[in-house]
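STRUCTURE:
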């Protein structure tokens, strides 16, 4: 049985898929989650997929005391993958203090316990949102970050800086930040997937809920962008491909292959897709007549972004493998399974 990895936010969308891939790679996973944006049933779903039930602790990581107790209760943690954070762009605009408190204090508490206990490896869940609207595309890791468009995005940039400075001060600790582009899709088993509570902010869950008849119609936010079909462009990355990148990153740290003790990588497909192209692909692969309309632009949205993934391909030896078609079908299968359709 391999190294014990603490996965914070491990019952969440990307966290749960990463626990599956960690277990498939022979690691032991301990999940810490406050269940504010996920359900405890995900633990059993993971066990159904892998045949092994991860340990689980309900914990508020923004509490220094609760975070300390977590590590007391689970000795032998060798490395950490830190997902736990509030992640809604829109909500962060309405509740900035909650976002700064939760996302930043959770990270600082994790780093303090890493340092206290000599846990030397962490992979951090970051986001392409740190680039804002890049001046040049595709965006590389050396593209300068831009002022965040939201408090959520700002917490990601601040957390990257905290990790960078921690690693500068502690040369024998190593961290990797993975800058996700747009994660979509679900595990092929359809037993885990994206489960937004309330009205989905993100495109694909809104599409699958509309296809399931839960939402009346999809609003496409703007068709007057400077793009081929006028709708905004993103780099949609399959969630299983994305989860595998975390296993590769943890192995890189454990095997001491990192070039320096703070690295960051773009995790995307390297291809941009417009909202309309994604909608038409969903309709094509599922045969569902998806009702949609063109609506005004959503404030805060950027026009277009997609990744240059050559660094993660070369240094991590990782590449996105699944097609958009397969990914959208997996999202639809998950929606149908979850709704019992
Ligand atoms: C994608 C495109 C929308 C909904 C954000 C965060 C990122 C990450 C993912 C957390 C945009 C359009 C959407 C809808 C639409 N955060 N859209 N109708 O905004 O690129 O990224 O979520 O995990 O850090 O910044 O993702 O899925 O919300 O939007 O037309 O009902 O789909 O305008 O062009 P986004 P998204």
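SEQUENCE:
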């Amino acid at each position: 049985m391999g190294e014990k990895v603490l996965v914070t936010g491990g019952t969440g969308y990307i966290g749960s898929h990463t626990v599956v891939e960690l277990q498939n790679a022979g690691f032991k996973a301990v999940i810490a989650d406050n269940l504010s944006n996920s359900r405890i049933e995900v633990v059993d779903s993971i066990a159904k997929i892998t045949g092994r039930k991860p340990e689980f602790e309900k914990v508020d990581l923004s509490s220094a005391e609760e975070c300390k107790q977590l590590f007391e209760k689970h000795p032998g943690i060798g490395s950490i993958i830190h997902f736990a954070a509030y992640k809604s762009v829109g909500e962060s605009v309405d509740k900035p203090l909650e976002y700064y408190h939760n996302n930043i204090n959770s990270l600082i508490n994790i780093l303090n316990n890493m340092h206290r206990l000599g846990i030397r490896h962490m992979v951090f869940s970051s986001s392409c949102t740190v680039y804002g609207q890049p001046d040049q595309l595709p965006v590389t890791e050396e593209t300068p970050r831009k002022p965040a468009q939201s408090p959520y995005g700002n917490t990601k940039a601040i957390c990257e800086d905290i990790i960078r400075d921690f690693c500068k001060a502690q040369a024998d600790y190593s961290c990797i930040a993975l800058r996700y582009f747009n994660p979509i899709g679900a595990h092929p088993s359809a037993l885990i997937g994206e489960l937004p509570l309330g009205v989905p902010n993100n495109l694909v869950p809104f599409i699958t809920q509309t296809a399931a008849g839960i939402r009346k119609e999809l609003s496409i936010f703007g068709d007057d962008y400077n793009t081929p079909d006028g709708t905004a462009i993103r780099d949609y990355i399959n969630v299983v491909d994305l989860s595998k990148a975390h296993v590769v990153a943890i192995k890189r740290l454990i095997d001491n292959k990192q070039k320096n003790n703070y690295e960051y990588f773009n995790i995307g497909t390297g291809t941009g897709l417009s909202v309309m192209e994604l909608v038409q692909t969903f309709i094509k692969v599922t045969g569902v007549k998806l009702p949609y309309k063109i609506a005004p632009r959503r404030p805060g949205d950027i026009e277009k972004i997609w990744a240059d993934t050559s660094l993660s391909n070369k240094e991590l030896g990782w590449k996105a493998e699944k097609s958009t078609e397969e990914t959208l079908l997996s999202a639809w299968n998950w929606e149908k399974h979850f709704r019992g359709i």
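REMARK: DSSP finds eleven helices and 13 strands in the chain.
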